[in-house]
Design a protein that fits this description.
3% strand; mainly alpha; single chain; two-stranded antiparallel ribbon
């Protein structure tokens, strides 16, 4: 059993391991090449998060999905570079919106260079992703553009909040399908499509990726409350401090509204208040970590991961299918 990549996936077949490792190494080289500019400062800013590392979750899914066709087809590595560049670009923008200080264990770009440079660097990465995408054909461009529209729509819906009468949890899960599920689904779709896999397999892997992406983000929600910065690569409680309503907080609010327990109502008031004070912020984190709402969010993570696993049933058995199933376990493990 070999651990592949920073995500920690265990692979039980030497040929699959070699394919995945070779593919990920090529993606890493492609990311460095795509983030180079004739202007040294732009290269420094664009490579800031590339060099900080990361799980390379999406490229890994591209490589595994490609195993259901020709894993050496020429479009596989470039498509993995496209999805990772797109993901990286969204991180630059997210950190500006969230006023985050740390990303992947290093200063966020907005902390180091200011908001304007961070936003423009994200735009630069989107441009480079589009340049690579253009060589993959009009169908790939259409798929990526639709996913990007869903991603942006999800971000807007998160910012705007649920409409009158809409259940906040249902609204939030729709947000995650757009913000995270869309690009993870495209990762699986590109890997299968570029490898020449049957259309039924492409569809199956796309649906798997959608659900896995939501589970992955829900695990991040749990980590934002439950982890320290060493585990998550960013400051604990960042979303909480910025008032972003992640799933544990939404479950807390629902419990307070349904049952009216004084301790829940008090915690909601604390969580919805000004958390710029470190002492107050730490107190809310401590109490949320002990609240059933956090465990409920963990159960939701498991549910989506199991839905993703169930989507794999029609695929032919083999090491690639087993590895994709193990990805579901890895996501759940992140959430504790």
């Amino acid at each position: 059993m070999t651990v592949v990549g920073p995500f920690g996936l265990s692979v039980r077949d030497q040929a699959l391991e070699a394919d995945v490792q070779t593919g990920l190494a090529a993606v890493e080289a492609g990311l460095l090449d795509a983030t180079k500019s004739d202007v040294p400062f732009i290269t420094e800013a664009a490579q800031h998060l590339v060099l900080a590392g990361g799980k390379r979750f999406r490229p890994l899914l591209v490589m595994l999905a490609a195993q259901f066709g020709d894993p050496y087809a020429p479009g596989i590595v470039p498509s993995a570079v496209v999805v990772e560049l797109t993901h990286l670009a969204t991180l630059y923008h997210d950190d500006v919106m969230d006023e985050a200080d740390v990303r992947r264990g290093v200063d966020s770009a907005n902390t180091r260079w200011g908001n304007s440079i961070a936003v423009l660097t994200g735009d630069f990465l989107f441009a480079r992703a589009s340049h690579t995408l253009a060589d993959l054909g009009p169908e790939a461009v259409r798929i990526q553009s639709e996913a990007f529209e869903r991603l942006v729509t999800g971000q807007i819906l998160e910012t705007a909040g649920p409409s009158e009468g809409r259940d906040p949890v249902d609204h939030y899960l729709d947000v995650l399908s757009g913000k995270t599920g869309s690009l993870v689904a495209v990762s699986c779709r590109f890997g299968a499509m570029m490898s020449g896999a049957d259309e039924s397999i492409v569809d199956t892997l796309t649906q798997y990726g959608e659900r896995l992406g939501v589970a992955f983000q829900l695990a991040d929600d749990v980590l934002d409350i439950a982890s320290d910065s060493h585990e998550s690569g960013k400051t604990p409680g960042t979303d909480l401090r910025e008032g972003i309503p992640t799933l544990p907080v939404l479950h807390l609010r629902a419990a307070a509204a349904a049952h009216g327990r004084p301790e829940d109502l008090e915690l909601v008031e604390l969580a919805d208040g000004d958390l710029s004070d470190d002492t107050r912020h730490a107190e809310v984190l401590r109490r949320l970590r002990a609240h059933p709402a956090l465990e409920q969010a963990r159960r939701d993570t498991v549910r989506y991961a199991e839905e993703a696993r169930a989507m794999l049933a029609p695929l032919p058995d083999g090491y690639a299918k087993a590895a994709l199933a193990e990805m579901c376990d890895a996501v759940v493990h992140r959430a504790g």
